[in-house]
């Protein structure tokens, strides 16, 4: 399984370590030439959604990535990656890839709770540790998006067909089960011929 990790800005290196540990082949995507049709899945890391979103456009990566998503290639977005995939961002006109039926609230936990950890159930996986860093939450799911985890009544993970998002950073804990969940999605999509 070959996973393309967007390495434009933010916390991509830790994802690469986890994906490799789980047996995936990892390639960094930094420019248009890196993004070809050979990938089985993609990962959009945490960081600053405004910066990553702008770079995706400027580097000519946005449109080819949108096409791959439409072909059914699985994409995992964490934190800023969640914001990049959301169809709506509260109090913000700009959206980016806008592929997932979720509304997200940026920096949703305010200053005091800029960073915190929690332990909560993740559907089909079990209780997992969750690290939040100036995180968004999902204020609304609609259409085909299904919540997978909630913390304090707020949705913090969701799935819609080939798209998976978490508001937290699973790559910053020793628990690799959310990445394994994503690689299962990748495996299934590769087998079933990718219908988004
Ligand atoms: N606050 C960041 C944003 O709005 C996301 C934080 C993160 O990815 N850890 O993009």
What does this structure look like?
The structure is a single chain. The chain is an alpha/beta fold and 196 residues long. The protein has a single domain, classed as Rossmann fold. 26% of the residues lie in helices and 34% in strands. The chain has helices at residues 13-21, 49-58, 62-70, 80-85, 177-192; strands at 2-6, 25-29, 41-44, 75-78, 86-89, 100-105, 115-122, 126-133, 137-141, 146-151, 154-160, 163-166. The strands form 3 sheets. A 7-stranded mixed β-sheet has the order 2-1-3-4-12-11-10. The chain has a 3-stranded mixed β-sheet with strand order 5-6-9. It has a two-stranded antiparallel sheet with strand order 7-8. It is globular, with a radius of gyration of 15 Å.
Topology:
Layout: E1 2-6, H1 13-21, E2 25-29, E3 41-44, H2 49-58, H3 62-70, E4 75-78, H4 80-85, E5 86-89, E6 100-105, E7 115-122, E8 126-133, E9 137-141, E10 146-151, E11 154-160, E12 163-166, H5 177-192
Parallel strand pairs: 1-2, 1-3, 3-4, 4-12, 5-6
Antiparallel strand pairs: 6-9, 7-8, 10-11, 11-12
Concise account of the structure shown:
By secondary structure, the protein is α/β, with parallel strands linked by helices. The chain contains five helices and twelve strands. Strand 7 and strand 8 (126-133) form a beta hairpin.
């Amino acid at each position: 399984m070959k996973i393309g990790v967007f390495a434009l800005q933010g916390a991509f290196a830790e994802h690469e370590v986890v994906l490799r540990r789980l047996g995936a082949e990892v390639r960094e995507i930094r420019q248009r030439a890196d993004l070809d049709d050979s990938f089985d899945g993609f990962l959009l890391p945490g960081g600053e959604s405004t910066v990553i979103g702008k770079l995706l456009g400027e580097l000519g990566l946005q449109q080819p990535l949108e096409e791959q998503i439409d072909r059914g290639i699985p994409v995992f977005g964490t934190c800023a990656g969640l914001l990049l995939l959301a169809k709506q961002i509260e109090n913000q006109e700009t959206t980016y890839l806008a592929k997932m039926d979720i509304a997200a609230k940026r920096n949703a936990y305010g200053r005091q709770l800029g960073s915190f950890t929690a332990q909560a159930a993740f559907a089909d996986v079990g209780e997992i540790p969750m690290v939040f860093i100036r995180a968004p939450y999902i204020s609304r799911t609609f259409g085909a998006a299904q919540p997978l985890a909630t913390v304090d009544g707020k949705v913090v993970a969701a799935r819609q067909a080939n798209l998976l998002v978490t508001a937290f950073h699973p790559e910053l804990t020793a628990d690799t089960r959310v990445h394994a969940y994503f690689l299962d999605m990748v495996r299934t999509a590769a087998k079933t011929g990718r219908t988004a």
